[in-house]
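hey can u check if this looks right to u? its 140 residues, i copy pasted from the old doc so theres a chance i mangled smth
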Amino acid sequence: MNQPFSVPVTVRGYETDVQGHLNQAVYLNYAEHARWSLLQAAGIGQAALVGQGVGPVALETTIRYRRELLAGDEVEVTCDFEWGEGKTFRIRQTVRKADGTVAAEIDAVGGLMDLKARRLVADPRAYFEALASDPALLGR
C-alpha cells in the first residue's frame, strides 16, 4: 500500500476550546476513529476481536501539534500500522488540513491483549491478519 489509510473529518465547533482551537483531547478521538475505520475497512470488527478473546490496547501516545485547527476545518486523518517482532506495534498518524498543511502528528504504541489472561499476545499481527478480509490495509 503506497499511501496510508485515511478518513475525512470536519472539525466541529463544540470540539474547540476558548481560543477557538481544536481541543487537545479531541486529537485522540480523531486518531482512534481513524484506527477503527482502518480495522473495519480491513474486515475486522470489534465483535470479531472479542470473539477471538482479544482486544487492542493503547500503551503510549505522543501528539506533536504543528498548526491550529478551527471549527469548520476539513482534515484527513491517516493511519499506518508498523509491525515489529514483539508483542507491540506502532501506529503512525497524521492530521492534515485540506491544503496539505500538517496540523498534528500522532505516534502510538499498541498491543493486543488476551482478554482472559490480561496479557499481551505474542504476535498481534497474526491475530489481525487472520481476522482481516483485506490484510494489505494493515500495513508493513
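The chain has a mean pLDDT of 96.
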